[in-house]
Amino acid sequence: MKRIKVFIFNTIILMFTGIILRILTIYFNIYISNKIGTEMLGVFQLIMSVYLFGITLANFGINLSSTRVVAENLALNNINGTKKVAKYCLYFSLISGICASIIFYVFRNFILTNCLHSKVSEEVIYLLCLALPLISMSNAINGYFAGIRKVYKNSLAQFFEQISKIIVTAFFLNLFLPKGINYACISLIIGDLVSEIFSFIFIYILYLFEIKKDYSKKSTYIISDKNETYSKEILRISLPVAITSYIRSGLSTLKQLIIPSSLEKSGSSCANALSTYGIINGMSLPIIMFPDIFIKSFSNLLIPEFSRYFAKKDFKRAKQITLLLLFLTGVISLFITAFLFIFSTPLGLKLYNNPYSGYYIKLLAPLAFFIYVDTVVDSILRGLDAQVGVMIVNIFDLIISSTFIFFFVPKLGVNGYIISIYISEIFNFSCSIYQLYKLMHNA
């Protein structure tokens, strides 16, 4: 009963803060799009695609391994072990973050020329390099708090990060926007860097207070006195996740980078291609993904919960919970899909004052069902030690969709890009459901 109460409490906290943060993000995106225009928004989306690849490099799969190993130790009442795991994950994340920054610095000219079409200067890459180690270490601590069921601390840090990001970005954007696209993008990245600094300091202080608590009386089971056991267990999870994540993120970044060029090959000018890309990825897709915050509020909590079922080999209970979750998620997703489809035009006009954004919301609305259910299925699979299978599916998904974009978007234009999104999401959903069925059937 206590575990259920904790789960419900964490879900409510995540949902409440997630809704606030997502609303703030959407209105912030509206502010940015109105301030800088759709072409510049497209350039910023390209920068964020490269940035996300750097974050993946820096994370090294530590977030998931931190959550999994901490949760498994907690299930066995090895509370002191959870602290050791957290420290090891923090060390690994610092190293991986620094390595990612070095890689970005070394290949900065390639990134600027081939990925960002020489639209921005080196200062943008320097700012990204400074942020990567902080993001990596913050994610390691986030994984620790998720594993010990104290996700409200992650929520506090995220809320603090978003507020500071909005304030700092707005200040620098008003200061530097008249100087052009480069300075506008620098302003946006400065806002992100400063918010990451504040967020890391905040969550690290919470982490220090947490590990200083004395749980020695509650720790009744010790796996091993050798610290090497923890590092091996962390690397057992993080290494395959990191390798597959690097491949997946690299393909994802490549996919995002070839979209504007493929649209340009279809007959659009560079400015129109970037503008269309900015509308779809910077306006319409965030609206489609907004309700996903309700799903993610509890799906992220499923990883430590199903990790406990996996540690205790309680697959019967895992099956029962899985069926219930899929039914509830499916019903909720259908209602959300219908709402987005019916009210797509008013949403586009009200939020962005852009009729094209509403048009693309309607085109993409049917995908909401597949996206939301797939979110829950992937979390369950990760909790049951099937994270590598999830990443492999994502890799094949990206290969297929990227190939389609490269060969068919130049012929079909923006409709080809919309079709590629459908192919991607439906393929990913189908493979994830099949993986979960096989896993449950064989358990």
Structure description:
- The structure is a single chain.
- With 443 residues, the protein is mostly helical.
- It contains 16 helices and no strands.
- Helix 2 (62-75) packs antiparallel against helix 8.
- The longest helix is centred in the first third of the chain and has 58 residues, at 2-59.
- The two termini are 25 Å apart.
- Mean pLDDT is 81; it is low at 220-226.
Mean pLDDT: 81
* Structural shape: globular
The class by helix and strand makeup works out as: mainly alpha
Sketch the topology as an H/E string, one letter per element: HHHHHHHHHHHHHHHH
How are the SSEs ordered, and which strands pair?
Elements (H helix, E strand, L loop, with lengths): L1 H58 L2 H14 L3 H28 L1 H8 L6 H26 L3 H26 L4 H31 L15 H39 L4 H20 L2 H21 L2 H28 L1 H9 L2 H10 L2 H17 L3 H26 L1 H29 L1
Helix pairs in contact: 1-3, 1-5, 1-6, 1-7, 1-8, 1-9, 1-10, 2-3, 2-5, 2-8, 2-10, 3-5, 3-8, 5-6, 5-7, 6-7, 8-9, 8-15, 9-13, 10-11, 10-14, 11-14, 12-13, 14-15, 14-16, 15-16
